[in-house]
Design a protein that fits this description.
This protein has 287 residues and is α/β, with parallel strands linked by helices. It has ten helices and eleven strands. The strands form two sheets. Strands 6-5-4-7-8-11-10 form a seven-stranded mixed β-sheet, sandwiched between helices. Strands 1-2-3-9 form a four-stranded antiparallel β-sheet. Helix 4 packs across helix 5. It starts with 14 loop residues before the first strand and ends with a strand. It binds zinc ion (ZN). The site of zinc ion (ZN) has 9 residues, from loops. Zinc ion binds next to loops.
């Protein structure tokens, strides 16, 4: 690949970073974001999500109950942030997947609508009686000042057109409304890639921790890139938090528990510079 193109955040020419699942990731030497190069079109990705394999491959895991169990810590942290920031109006769980967060927020008394682009997941949420609708061209994304908060649990890193998305949700949010997004970020991904490839950029990107999960993970943002991107679309960063670890079983579960303990020590000391956080939670408010 001669020219991977410009960074979607800061327009700096990307450097080739490595291959994963027949896709190539580029690294921005300026803002440190890792992103698919070329970025697939919105249409290409939308088609891929409709194919049954997204819901059932390793990423979707094909099992709503096991995802809900392993992701419970994520849901609780996001629900807690809505309380912490006194969010009381309509909430949209964008990219709600199997509906675990939508269900929890509804149980906690929020007026929550789940939006999801993957049809089998929408169908399963509805079978469970959840208020979940097709995210594609949903009218709420064309609306003005109707939503108090958008929450995203492992979704922002899936977007092919993050700028268009931020423009739409900024319009849809009420004055002072919030975007709260939990997402895997670039520092940990780069640390893992660096360690497991021993500096050899010709080696494929590692599959560990599911971070280089092409084509679903379109971009792993650095913390400052996320702040810059959202800032350019009318959002102010209120706080960045360490995302909790998920809770799967087996050897991966043990790793998650070890990471949880390390993070409890490192985050209070090093804050946003701490490199062992797989994911962060960004809390933005509409300016
Ligand atoms: Zn950049």
């Amino acid at each position: 690949m001669d020219s991977p193109g410009p960074c979607l955040v800061c327009r700096t020419p990307l450097a080739r970073y490595g291959e994963a699942r027949d896709h190539v990731y580029g690294l921005c030497p300026s803002c440190g974001t890792v992103q698919l190069a070329p970025m697939p079109s919105q249409e290409t990705l939308a088609d891929a999500y409709q194919a049954a394999n997204y819901a059932t491959d390793e990423h979707g895991q094909g099992n709503a109950d096991s995802i809900r169990k392993s992701s419970r810590n994520y849901y609780e942290s996001l629900a807690g942030l809505l309380v912490c920031h006194s969010v009381t109006g309509p909430v949209v769980d964008y990219g709600c997947g199997w509906g675990g967060l939508t269900e929890l927020l509804a149980q906690r008394g929020h007026d929550c609508l789940g939006l999801e682009a993957c049809a089998p997941m929408v169908a399963e949420c509805r079978r469970r009686g959840l208020r979940v609708e097709d995210a594609r061209n949903h009218p709420i994304l064309q609306s003005r000042a109707t939503v108090q908060a958008f929450v995203m649990c492992g979704v922002f890193e899936h977007l092919a057109e993050p700028r268009e998305f931020l423009t739409a949700i900024h319009r849809a949010l009420r004055p002072g409304g919030m975007l709260i997004t939990l997402q895997p970020t670039a520092p940990f991904a780069r640390l893992v890639a660096g360690m497991l490839r021993l500096g050899n950029r010709r080696a494929p990107l590692p599959r560990h921790f599911d971070v280089f999960d092409a084509p679903w993970h379109t971009a792993l943002y650095s913390l400052r890139a996320m702040e810059k991107l959202a800032g350019e679309h009318g959002f102010r960063l209120v706080e960045t938090r360490l995302a909790p670890q998920g809770r799967v079983g087996g050897a991966k579960g043990l790793l998650q528990a070890a990471a949880h303990n390390l993070n409890r020590l490192g985050w209070p000391v090093f804050g946003r510079c701490w490199p062992l956080a797989v994911a962060h939670i960004f809390v933005f408010t509409k300016r």
